[in-house]
């Protein structure tokens, strides 16, 4: 499978060298020019269409959506094409993956490199396709602006994608496999079970970043007053806001408590 | 929202009676407008004019579950010879669909 290639067209490092200008030649042709500074946070997430339709849009001009409380810009999914509509500036596909239907728009000028006179992607109605793109909203309606839409070659890609989307969803909402009922990688389960069971029991149900903060608190040398969140931020290499949010989660779960001030935390061990 | 077609296997037919679902199964019998597929258990399906099924192929059916737990087919897609499809993965998908249904469908009953 050539998944590796697809990732690189949308990731940060790939096209930077070509123009030397710090912006991406392969990116969405309909993006406004001011995108330069934002690629550091671009992520690619496998999703179901239902997740796309349900994802909260934090504020009207936001470039990202929230899926499982994580900022999401680019997504990938696999579904069946129900309808193809050729328009002047784009081709609009209606894609159904069994969880919902979403419109996928491929802008015509990004097709310039392909042959004239035939549909270069060979995407036909009722065919299953893999889509890479960004979720966008226009008024009340959501659609996906696609960089890539291609027919799948192997029908197992459908099962693979749905299972991958499930794993990523569970990792974001419940933390790494170990307490989750992971169906896929048995090896990952085995490795994660090696971590302390006491910690697992307390941490069941927190996000991955909360786990990191907790592990840092557990393992770092500190006085009995605990660690300030700035120190934690440096150690785990996260934003202070993300550490603050993780800390609130852990405080809510009762696994840490505040000491000399609201931002200094220690592990609650009885 | 109600355009979702949850993936199921034979054991879920009763739970999804009168709903539109997806089944992935192996074609076992063809009898004119009726057929039998093995989707974790035998399921009777009633075909429409556009369905072209082949024996021992894997097929994905979108259809409505009837009172007698047969399925009236609305659309079908041939997935090729059955030995090319990983049915263990497909069953895992059905399991995940119902266990973590929040990303797959709205449970409205």
Automatic annotation (TrEMBL), chain A:
Residues 75-151 form the OB domain. One of its GO terms (cellular component) is chromosome, telomeric region. Keywords: DNA replication, DNA-binding, Nucleus. Residues 169-263 form the Replication protein A C-terminal domain. Residues 1-12 have a biased composition (Polar residues). InterPro entries: NA-bd_OB-fold, NA-bd_OB_tRNA, RFA2-like, Rfa2/RPA32, RPA_C, WH-like_DNA-bd_sf, WH_DNA-bd_sf. Residues 13-24 have a biased composition (Gly residues). CDD domains: RPA2_DBD_D. Residues 1-41 are annotated as: Disordered. The keyword Acyltransferase does not apply. GO terms for molecular function: single-stranded DNA binding. One of its GO terms (biological process) is nucleotide-excision repair. It is found in: Nucleus. Pfam families: RPA_C (PF08784), tRNA_anti-codon (PF01336). It comes from the Eukaryota. Belongs to the replication factor A protein 2 family. This is Replication protein A C-terminal domain-containing protein.
Automatic annotation (TrEMBL), chain B:
Keywords: Nucleus. One of its GO terms (molecular function) is damaged DNA binding. The keyword Nucleus applies. Pfam families: Rep_fac-A_3. It is found in: Nucleus. CDD domains: RPA3 (cd04479). One of its GO terms (biological process) is DNA replication. Signal peptide: none annotated. GO terms for cellular component: DNA replication factor A complex; site of double-strand break. Belongs to the replication factor A protein 3 family. This is Replication factor A protein 3. The lineage of its organism: Eukaryota, Fungi, Dikarya, Ascomycota, Pezizomycotina.
